[in-house]
Amino acid sequence: MHINTSVIHSDPEIMGGVPVFVGMRVPVRTLLDFLAAGDTLTEFLDHFPTVMREQAVAAIREVEQFWLARASN
Fold it and tell me: What are the structural domains of the chain?
């Protein structure tokens, strides 16, 4: 039995399928944009208080794993 522990969700019925944090309408891309701009994780969390630190860290790890898996193909 597979248990989905992802903190990232994509559904065409929610924001047109943009990957968001599970149960929220906060795009994961927004987190990545904050970090790419040099902002800290704390600054992102201050702007999006519905996202917990653990969720943001888990999302970063999921994105990392996705790209590492894709790079190895």
Answer: 8-71 (1.10.10.10)
